Amino acid sequence: MSEYYSNESLIQIALITLVLGGGCAILTGRTIALTWRSIWTAAITMIPMGLAVRFVHFVLFDETLLAPRTLVIEIAILIAFSCLAFQRTRALQMVRQYYWLYEPRGPLGWRPRQDASSPAPQP
């Protein structure tokens, strides 16, 4: 990590990127899922969030503002956090709101209930 961050320790990187940026990404992914938007919205909104995280590194620790590799890594981390939060929230939504149709399948998924009635076959 030292080749990407010249003026920061590992604790500072984790605090800004993972705690601050990751926390915001989790909240954003959750909010986007609650409003029934697509997962692509959750991923795309992480681009400006990654720029904001990069700006915090620049202002607080005198890092390079637009370091391409570091920016891509930070955006990828934020997208991962956001998409995981989105999928977890969506799975909970589907199971909670359509409890007669779906049951949980792990922490990030759902499946049709075995006791749910099948639609009638079309002639």
Spatially, the strands of the biggest sheet line up as 1-2
Tell me the number of helical segments per DSSP (H or I, 4 or more residues long): 4
Mean pLDDT over the residues: 90
Global morphology: elongated
Helical coverage, percent range: 55-70%
String of helices and strands: HHHHEE
Number of strands: 2
Find the structural class using helix and strand composition.
mainly alpha
| Rg result | 19 Å
What are the segments in which pLDDT stays under 50 over at least 5 consecutive residues?
none
Residues in β-strands, percent: under 5%
The end-to-end distance, rounded to whole angstroms, is 63 Å
State the major sheet: 2 strands, antiparallel
Domains, number: 1
Structure description:
With 123 residues, this protein is mainly α. It has one domain. It has helices at 10-34, 39-44, 46-61, 68-97; strands spanning 102-104, 110-112. The chain has a two-stranded antiparallel ribbon with strand order 1-2. The radius of gyration is 19 Å and the shape is elongated. The mean pLDDT is 90.
